[in-house]
Amino acid sequence: MTTMSDTDTEPETDVEADTDELARRAESAALRLANADEATRNEALRAIADEIREREAEILEANAVDVEEAEAMLADGEYTQALVDRLKLDETKIEEIASMVESVAEQDDPLGETLAARELDDGLELYRVAVPIGVVATVFESRPDALVQIAALALKSGNAVVLKGGSEASESNRALHEAIVDATADLPDGWAAHIEAHEEVDRLLELDDRVDLVMPRGSSEFVSYVQEHTQIPVLGHTEGVCHVYVDEAADLEMAANVAFDAKVQYPAVCNAVETLLVHESVADAFLPGLVERYESAGVELRGDERTREVVDVAPAADDDWDAEYGDLELSIKVVDDVYDAVEHVNEHGSKHTESILTEDAEAAETFMTGVDAASVFHNASTRFADGYRYGLGAEVGISTGKIHARGPVGLAGLTTYKYYLEGDGHLVASYSGEDAIPFTHRELDDAEWTPGSLSTH
């Protein structure tokens, strides 16, 4: 756990005091949950899945209240259609949520894995072993299924979790959280906490003595707010400005299908394409057909001057190249070559996901090694940037940073490690001075840490 920061303050209000107590209980639960064996954690996950199925009607009733209020806000112009769509649950979605929890239970245990082993001397062995992070706070918007997904991953990885969903999903989140808590009554009290008020979030972000990691999911402005108001490490991304580059050596039929999928299949998510880059030599042959297809799907298109010489679309403004639309909107730019595409991506991208469509391996390598992003694809839709599709079981979010975890963050991203040293009365003094014993520093391949035992290697 982290240590008390000089910036921590005593609670001044009941809300602050309650949040402090919630965080204290979460910290206590995390220490005990770290010692829960895999069977216990998996049994609890399956119980959550069963409880969610049993409470389907109750959960959908709560969700209907949220959706009705959100649609009224949409009519008033205060919410977007994309937000309302992310909010909705139905019978199929409930089953998907329950199945997701079960799939997390089926994943390999991320805890206790020996990540490295080294003999320092005869009978003195060092092991680096995966352990939980501790207390993870998550703050997310609109998607109620995210609450269950995050809680399931936290439980599987032995972490306590504090969950804060958006007010637009308050009824849904309460119903889902109650199902989780009731299903896991045998686990340490406070392992899955739920907060709702902004004041609670602000206080939680101050508690770097209790909370080990914050994972925000939501808009760029929302994630930036969290990053600016805490000293706790933050794992997340502020934007999903993703690009698809159609190279001069692209299979244009395949490229059209991929570019269409990357925008239209689900435009509200962070891995949908926001800017299409097209090599100048194929713009005339490629753009007219694709633009017609986009327009038939209701996509609002903008283009630079060279694009507008080929197709009739609205002019793109400078800020369009930095926009995360999250909707059926797309900007198009004609570029000179792959190097021009790389330069544009690195200037305007958000380090999330980028894709090149080409049959030229050299061009693919130039693009894939040249752009700065957590995920870079060749001849595939940006929509593949997802923990489930990567085989991670589920994800708590996508990180565009480069420290600790990058890209879709699954179970491994919710662990850290400890060094365990097994010895037999070894003294540092023996390895110092004129008659110092030399260290062997021999790697122990495939060795697994077993408490109180030395490797047989």
Brief synopsis:
By secondary structure, the protein is of the alpha/beta class. The protein has helices at residues 14-33, 38-54, 56-75, 81-87, 91-106, 145-156, 170-183, 198-204, 220-228, 252-264, 283-296, 305-308, 338-348, 361-370, and strands spanning 114-121, 124-132, 135-140, 160-164, 192-195, 213-217, 242-246, 273-279, 300-303, 314-315, 329-335, 353-357, 375-378, 397-399, 407-409, 415-422, 442-443.
Explain this structure.
- This protein has a 7-stranded parallel sheet with strand order 10-9-11-8-7-12-13, with helices on both faces. It has a 4-stranded antiparallel sheet with strand order 16-2-1-17, with no helix packed on it.
- It has 2 domains: 14-236 and 409-414, Aldehyde Dehydrogenase, Chain A, domain 1 (3-Layer(aba) Sandwich), CATH 3.40.605.10; 242-390, Aldehyde Dehydrogenase, Chain A, domain 2 (3-Layer(aba) Sandwich).
- It has helices at residues 14-33, 38-54, 56-75, 81-87, 91-106, 145-156, 170-183, 198-204, 220-228, 252-264, 283-296, 305-308, 338-348, 361-370; strands at 114-121, 124-132, 135-140, 160-164, 192-195, 213-217, 242-246, 273-279, 300-303, 314-315, 329-335, 353-357, 375-378, 397-399, 407-409, 415-422, 442-443.
- Mean pLDDT is 93; it is low at 1-7.
- The chain has 457 residues and is α/β, with parallel strands linked by helices.
- It is globular, with a radius of gyration of 25 Å.
- 38% of the residues lie in helices and 19% in strands.
- It is built from 14 helices and 17 strands.
- It catalyses: L-glutamate 5-semialdehyde + phosphate + NADP(+) = L-glutamyl 5-phosphate + NADPH + H(+).
- GO terms for molecular function: glutamate-5-semialdehyde dehydrogenase activity.
- Residues 7-20 have a biased composition (Acidic residues).
- Keywords: Amino-acid biosynthesis, Cytoplasm, NADP, Oxidoreductase, Proline biosynthesis.
- Belongs to the gamma-glutamyl phosphate reductase family.
